[in-house]
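re the bet — no i am not wrong, look at it urself. input seq straight from the record:
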Amino acid sequence: MKFHTDENVAEAVAQGLRRRGFNVSTTVEAGMCGADDEQQLAHALAESRVIITHDADMLRLASAGAAHAGIAYCYNQKYKPGQLLQKILALAGRVSEEKMRGRIQFL
C-alpha cells in the first residue's frame, strides 16, 4: 500500500512508514502546500495512494462522490505520531490496497 500524508499530518508519521518499507509522499514534498482538498485527493488518486489526513473536509468530498484511492482519517490530535503510525500499520496489515480504493477508514 502506498500513502500520501496531507500537510496537517506530522512528518514523523511519513518517516516511520518509510522506515518500515512503505512508499510515502507528503504534501510538502509534492509542492502542494496550500492546495485545496480536491487537488490533494486527485494527486493521491493519480498515484494510487491512500491519503492520511486529519481534515474532515476530505470526508465530505468523499461522501459527495469524489473518487479517491482511500482515506485514512484521524481526528486531529487524537493520537501522538507514534500511535497514529501504529494505527496505519495495523490498517496496512489487514486491508489490501485494492480494498482501500474508495474506502474511508477511521483511525
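see?? The chain is about 40% helix and 20% strand. told u. also Residues 38 and 66 are 8 Å apart (CA to CA). so pay up
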